[in-house]
Write a sequence for this structure.
């Protein structure tokens, strides 16, 4: 009886630990070209660290913004790369976009955060 309780206790502890641990970081490479971002959707979990590598292959500067999460990446010049990270604390769909004037209508995508 004692052994069975110990086994049940260990199984419960393992289940709780698995449920409460943060998801592994998500690495995403986004390539910006002239008025476009090549990743139309990023899927992440609540609390998951999202590591973005933004590569600018266009002739104009580009940046990366998610207003609802306070993400405002500085402009990246032609041929340069920027790396930055963020996470979302609640589920939802968040629009990301390049904030350079005239780019935001086409250089955009959605971050979809689920539990």
């Amino acid at each position: 009886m004692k052994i069975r309780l110990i086994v049940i206790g260990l199984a419960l502890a393992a289940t709780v630990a698995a449920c409460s641990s943060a998801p592994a970081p998500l690495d995403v490479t986004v390539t910006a070209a002239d008025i476009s971002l090549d990743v139309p959707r990023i899927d992440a979990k609540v609390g998951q660290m999202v590591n973005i590598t933004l590569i600018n292959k266009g002739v104009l500067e580009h940046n990366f913004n998610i207003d609802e999460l306070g993400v405002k990446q500085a402009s990246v010049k032609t041929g340069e790369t920027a790396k930055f990270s963020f996470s979302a604390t609640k589920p939802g769909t968040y629009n990301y976009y390049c904030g350079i004037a005239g780019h935001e209508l086409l250089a955009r995508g959605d971050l979809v955060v689920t539990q």
Summary: The helical segments are 2-20.
